[in-house]
Amino acid sequence: MNVNIVKDKAAIAKMAYDIMLDMINSKDEVTLGLATGSSPEGIYELFRKNKPNVSHVTTVNLDEYIGLDAEHDQSYAYFMNKHLFHHLNFKQTFLPNGMNSDFAGECAHYDEILEENTPDLQLLGIGNNGHIAFNEPGMSFELTTNVAELAPATVEANSRYFASHDDVPKTAFSMGIKSIMQAKEILLIASGVGKAEAIKGMLEGPVTNQMPASILQQHPKVTVIIDEDAASLLSKK
Ligand code: PGA
């Protein structure tokens, strides 16, 4: 893994944006895997500011809460529309449909979308507990799109966006680890001391589903961009 330790969130966003832009400009048809959360906000801000041509770019998102529709201001569809999709001319954008009550059908449908649109570059954040997308500690590395139960730590972390803890959805459609590992290239970003433990486990720990992001040690092309706080527990820098 290619690990870059930079000064702050702004530096993470700039470096990640440049890598994504290089990919966008590298060929006629590009698929980007995208993520939600606070980590990518700075990257999407740079997209809005610079407005690169993305008319040849298809996007596939990692996950969506079950039970929230695109009008709900905490759904990931709403987040993506607000931060990115309403501002640029992407060719096609895909997220799981959080309102589909046919869970198995939605997972199979999203797997088909991913098969046809395998990301050239997948952007990832990481949870405080080492999750990627909603693949929580203990979940199998063999899963493709699945119905994930949010870990209590994730419900807690995400409750900052909801009126109360009880309002946080407890399940989500999520790309599985197996799906994520299909991406040709992966770009993982993280900042802040809250992520330090997960970053250490991902980079220096054993590959174990107790630390889902550790699987990335087995991916051939991963770039990690973190700030000094997120890097603070690493033994080698
Ligand atoms: P964050 O979430 O970017 O809001 O920290 C990352 C994650 O939980 O995967």
Overall average residue pLDDT: 97
Helix residue percentage: 25-40%
State Rg.
16 Å
The appropriate CATH architecture is 3-Layer(aba) Sandwich
Q: Tell me, briefly, the overall form.
A: globular
Terminal CA distance reads 13 Å
Subunit organisation of the chains: single chain
Number of domains: 1
Strand order of the largest sheet: 1-10-9-6-2-3-5
* DSSP summary, beta strand count: 10
Q: Return the CATH topology.
A: Rossmann fold
Task: Quote the beta fraction.
Answer: 15-25%
Report the total helices.
7
Small molecules bound in the structure, each named once? 2-phosphoglycolic acid
Largest sheet: 7 strands, parallel
Regions with pLDDT < 50 over 5+ consecutive residues? Answer: none
Name the helix and strand elements from N-terminus to C-terminus, one letter apiece.
EHEHEEHEHEEHEHEHE
CATH class: Alpha Beta
- Structural class, by secondary structure, is alpha/beta
Question: How would you describe this protein?
Answer:
By secondary structure, the chain is of the alpha/beta class. It has a single domain, classed as Rossmann fold (3-Layer(aba) Sandwich). Helix content is 30%, strand content 19%. The chain has 7 helices and 10 strands. The protein has helices spanning 9-24, 41-50, 76-85, 103-116, 152-158, 177-182, 196-204; strands at residues 2-6, 30-34, 57-61, 63-65, 92-94, 121-124, 146-149, 171-174, 186-190, 222-227. The longest helix is centred in the N-terminal third of the chain and has 16 residues, at 9-24. The mean pLDDT is 97. Bound molecules: 2-phosphoglycolic acid (PGA).
